[in-house]
Design a protein that fits this description.
By secondary structure, this protein is an alpha/beta fold. The strands form 2 sheets. It has a 6-stranded parallel β-sheet, sandwiched between helices. Strands 5-6 form a two-stranded antiparallel sheet. The structure holds thiamine diphosphate and magnesium ion.
Length: 317
């Protein structure tokens, strides 16, 4: 992969990180209302997956979906605007943090109900298959979602019908406040795909270039009619489950170990050993920080939605 392409991947990861840091700060100041589930630490998964997609491909994700939505190409300012509840937000300010949607870039929606979007992913993939578009669908969900009925129903049908879906399980070791071992009797969640006859892999979700390469292969299989893949990407969320969770249940030293494998540091290490200078790495980080700050200021200045538009786009009659 060309160095420029790797630098763009680094830029995107920085944007996701600065974006979440700003959401965290503004939440504490009362500018972000309601629950907010942050994504710091998991950037390599969505950035790696989405870098392997093509225009026309689609994506669904969870309430921890700021990163995946941005990785698909949703603009920083409109994504901030949605989280701030502004009229200029992606969904006119009516969805908020857990319902980011930007169909124009293939981001078909974030979902607050665990597992709810896996059948929707199948629907998007089925539509692509019937229309012969060659598109694939990337469906992001957490380790906890693999204990939900829709996970099993969706994997079964997708495998049977050879739907072009990439099931991306972001295994961050916790479902809310529970470590995996308290809720799930097996350790390798990718093994659940094997029982549905599905191509199933467990990968290092903090190595963005590995994620991209593996997903390119899985997408190629899906496009050529060989069916879905379940990818269990091992990663870690640096923050608690939501903004109100200080994560006291984590064993001492666990966060520190994962911070040493911060996905941004890992990619910077690869780039440095490829001969990219420290100046270039600093420039990319500073440009990303400025882009996020500018987008935040733009969105904060937008008006709130009009009161008499509050029922628009809420239902169809
Ligand atoms: C059907 C359903 N049950 C319970 C909840 C409450 N809940 C919200 S997040 C969550 C944990 C999900 O964990 P995981 O799938 O690992 O995703 P992560 O938050 O770690 O990204 C639960 C149980 C919910 N939103 N929907
Ligand atoms: Mg989890």
């Amino acid at each position: 992969m060309a160095t420029d392409e790797r630098l763009e991947i680094l830029r995107k990861m920085h944007e996701l990180r600065f974006f979440e840091n700003e959401c965290d700060r503004l939440f504490r100041q009362g500018q972000v209302k309601g629950p907010t589930h942050l994504y710091q630490g998991q950037e390599a998964v969505s950035v790696g997956v989405c870098a392997a997609l093509r225009p026309g491909d689609t994506m669904t994700c969870t309430y921890r979906g700021h990163g995946a939505t941005l990785a698909m190409g949703a603009p920083l300012d409109k994504t901030f605007g949605e989280i701030f509840g502004k009229a200029g937000g992606l969904c006119g300010g009516k969805g908020g943090s857990m319902h980011l949607t930007d169909a124009g870039v293939g981001a078909l929606g974030s979902n607050a109900i665990v597992g709810a979007h896996l059948p929707i992913a199948n629907g998007a993939a089925f539509a692509a298959m019937r229309r012969g578009t060659g598109a694939v669908h990337a469906c992001f969900f957490g380790d906890g979602s693999t204990n939900i009925g829709t996970f099993h129903e969706a994997l079964n049908l997708a495998s049977l019908w050879k739907l072009p879906v990439l099931f991306i399980c972001e295994n961050n070791l916790y479902g809310e406040y529970s470590p995996r071992a308290l809720t799930t009797p097996i350790e390798r969640l990718a093994d659940r795909g094997i029982s549905y006859g599905m191509n199933s892999l467990r990968i290092d979700g903090n190595e963005v270039l590995t994620v991209k390469e593996i997903v390119e292969g899985a997408a190629e299989r899906a496009r050529s009619g060989e069916g879905p893949t379940l990818i269990e990407a091992m990663t870690y969320r640096h923050q608690g489950h939501s903004r109100t969770d200080p994560a006291p249940y984590r064993p001492d030293g666990e966060l520190e170990e994962w911070l040493e494998r911060d996905p941004i540091l890992l990619l910077e290490g690869v780039l440095e050993s490829d001969g990219v200078g420290a100046d270039d790495l600093t420039r990319i980080r500073e440009e990303a920080e400025k882009a996020v700050a500018d987008a935040r200021d733009t969105a904060l200045a937008w008006p709130d939605p009009e009161l008499d538009e509050r029922f628009d786009h809420v239902w169809a009659s």
